[in-house]
Amino acid sequence: MTIEYPARIELARTPTPLEKLARTSAALGVEVWIKRDDLTGAELSGNKIRKLEFLFADAMARGADTVITGGGEQSNHCRATALAATRLGLRSVVLLRTADPGNPPTTRGNILLDRLAGAEIVWISPDEWQRRGEIFVREAERVKKAGHKAYVIPEGGSNAIGSWGYVVCAEEIDAQLAARPDVPTTVIHACGSGGTAAGLVIGARELSWSDRNIRVASVNVCDDRDYFVDVIGRICRGMRDDPEIEGEIDIVDGYVGDGYARSRPQELEQLVAMARREAVILDPVYTGKAWFGLVSELAKDRERFGQRVVFVHTGGIFGLFPAAERIFGSGGS
Ligand SMILES: *Cc1c(COP(=O)(O)O)cnc(C)c1O
C-alpha cells in the first residue's frame, strides 16, 4: 500500500537505524529496541527535522524567504528550524521563552547553535508566550515591512503538515519490524507538542498496525492526558478524515514530574544508567522523562507494552549540556 504524502524536501538522514538494546532487554525482561531518531543528523538532528521536511516544502512553495517559530529557551525545534532555514538559504526568527527577557540566558546548548545558524532571537516572557499567536502575527508584519515574506511554523512544528514526518517514521519502523511482524509491540516516545504522536498514530492507521498488535504510546512531558488527546486528535483530523482516531491515542500520563524542563533525581539516575549501560545519551527534558516513564511502567507491569518495545529516541542531546550541573553537581562524580 502506498501512503499519499504532501510535498517534502529532504533534510533528515533517513531511514534511521532500529537497534536492539541487549543488556537493557535482559534487565527489563522485555525486548527493548531503539529507533535512533537522534541520528537524523548531527546539528540537524532529532525528531523536529522530520517535520521540517514537510513544513519547509510548504514554506518554499508559498514563496517565503523567512521562517518564524518559537519555543523554550533550549528549544530543539527552534535550533533545528534555524539550521534548516540556513541550509536552504532562508532566514529565521525564533521566539525563545525565558523567565526574564531583559536578562537572557547564556549562549550555550541549543542557543549557541541558534546563534551560529544566524537566527534572529527574540526573547519573550512566559506571559507573552501565552499570547504567542499575536506575537507571531506581529513578527510576520515586521518581517513584511522589511521587505521579506514570512512563514510561521507553530511550536514543535506540530500541525497537520509537519506531523507527516512521523508517518514516514512509522513506515520505516514497519519495514524494520517486518522480519518478525507478529510480535506484540508498543512504539513509545516522548510527547511535548503532539506532532510526533499524531504522525505515528496516523501511520499506525495507514499501516493497519492494530491487525498486527502494534500500538503507539506517548509519554507526556507536560500538561496531561486530556490535553494531549485533544491536541493530537485535532492534528490527526487535519491529516485524515478519521472519526475513530481518538480511540487510538494512548497517553501514558504521570511522568511530568516537577514540570516541563524540570528534572527529578530518579529521572536523571535512569538517564545516567542508560548512558553507562548502552552508551545511549538521553536528554533531561524529553527522552529522559519518557524513558523513566517506560521503566517505571514496566516495573509495575512487565506485560504492559507487550513482548517488544520500540523506544523512539527523539534526540535532544544539545539540551543535555546546560543540565550538567543538575546531573553531577558542580564538582562531579
Ligand atoms: C520536541 C521534542 C519531543 C516531543 O515531540 P513533539 O512532536 O513535540 O510531541 C521529544 N523529544 C525531543 C528531544 C524533542 O525535541
Gist?
The chain has 333 residues and is an alpha/beta fold.
Measured as a percent range, the helix fraction is 25-40%
Q: Name the helix and strand elements from N-terminus to C-terminus, one letter apiece.
A: EHEHEHEHEHHEHEHEHEHHEH
- Number of helical segments with 4 or more residues: 12
Query: In total, how many domains does the architecture comprise?
Result: 2
Strand percentage, roughly?
15-25%
Question: What is the second-level CATH architecture of the largest domain?
Answer: 3-Layer(aba) Sandwich
The main β sheet shows up as: 6 strands, mixed
Radius of gyration: 19 Å
CATH topology of the largest domain: Rossmann fold
Mean of the pLDDT scores?
Answer: 97
Question: How far apart lie the N and C ends?
Answer: 53 Å
**Which structural class is indicated by helix and strand composition?**
alpha/beta
Count of beta strands: 10
Tell me, what's the shape? Answer: globular
Poorly predicted tracts of residues: none
Description:
- There is one protein chain.
- By secondary structure, the chain is α/β, with parallel strands linked by helices.
- The chain folds into two domains: 18-46 and 159-328, Rossmann fold (3-Layer(aba) Sandwich); 48-157, Rossmann fold, CATH 3.40.50.
- The chain is 40% helix and 16% strand.
- The protein has twelve helices and ten strands.
- The strands form two sheets. Strands 1-2-10-7-8-9 form a six-stranded mixed sheet, sandwiched between helices. The chain has a four-stranded parallel sheet with strand order 5-4-3-6, sandwiched between helices.
- The protein is globular.
- Bound molecules: pyridoxal-5'-phosphate.
- Pyridoxal-5'-phosphate binds next to helix 3, strand 7 and helix 8.
